[in-house]
Amino acid sequence: MKITVLGATGGVGRHVVTQALADGDQVTAVVRDPSKLPTHPRLDVVRTDVLDPTALAPLVAGRDAVISSLGHRGGGPQTVLADGARSLVRAATEVGVRRVLVVSASGAYTEKDDDLVTRALAKPLVRLFLRHNFTDTERMEQTIRASGLDWTIVRPPRLTDKPHTGRYRTGYQGVRGGYTVPRTDVADALLSLVGQAESIGRAVTVAS
To answer: Where is the NAD(P)-binding domain (predicted)?
Structure first.
């Protein structure tokens, strides 16, 4: 499989790259600092601005999927997710790439399978403190949903740096009691969902 990874040096993105290479995939990593990734015969590391669809288009052309794990840096109003989504949609549409997967956040949404504590206490508090980030997250999801592409949105809860387990849970209406998940397992889920047709056009929660 040939994939392009946006945000490839971030907490989730670097694990997507590592696991994809271990699976035998050909990976193009779009980064701001190429020195943060190791060399590999099946890895092309390209320094470019992911917010520029003209620059991004040739880096996604001919790929089986594009995975965006762009994330926020710090607090305050931000638009990196929404801007990145618009750039990705324009680039993918221009070159005819259909399959895109993006990392979102379950904390931004109240989901049917959330337990009472999560729904009534945890998520409202998280949304209060991360309101700027979640506004950007919501706009990103809106752009992806309206894209007309074969999209999947992946919503993890609080991310941790625990080792890869492969024993995560997924759900289309939330994951009951799923408060955390290792970044390594989110990467695993992203790569697994690429070939799952039932996930197209849906948001998938991934949690431990």
So the answer is: 7-194
β-pairing, 99-103 vs 150-155, is parallel
CA distances from residue 7 to 32, 103, 161, 166 in whole angstroms, order as listed:
9, 10, 17, 22
Identity of residue 167: R
* Helix or strand run (H / E) with residue 206: strand 202-207
30, amino acid identity: V
Predicted confidence (pLDDT) at residue 146 exceeds the cutoff of 90: yes
Instruction: Tell me: pLDDT of 190 over 90.
Output: yes
Closest by Cα among 57, 173, 184, 87 to 192:
184
- The predicted pLDDT at position 75 comes to 64
The answer to whether the beta carbons of residues 76 and 136 sit under 8 Å apart is no
DSSP 110-153: --TT--HHIIIIIHHHHHHHTHHHHHHHHHHHHHHHTS-SEEEE
Structural domains in the chain? 2-207 (3.40.50.720)
**How confident is the model over 46-66, as pLDDT tens digits?**
999 999 999 999 999 999 999
Whose CA is closest to 132, among 194, 83, 170, 80?
Answer: 80
Q: What is the pTM of this model?
A: 0.94
Residue type at position 153 = I
Determine the Cα–Cα distance for residues 62 and 58; give it in Å rounded to an integer.
9
Task: Say how many residues make up the chain.
Answer: 208
Tens-digit pLDDT profile for residues 76-106: 678 999 999 999 999 999 999 999 999 999 9
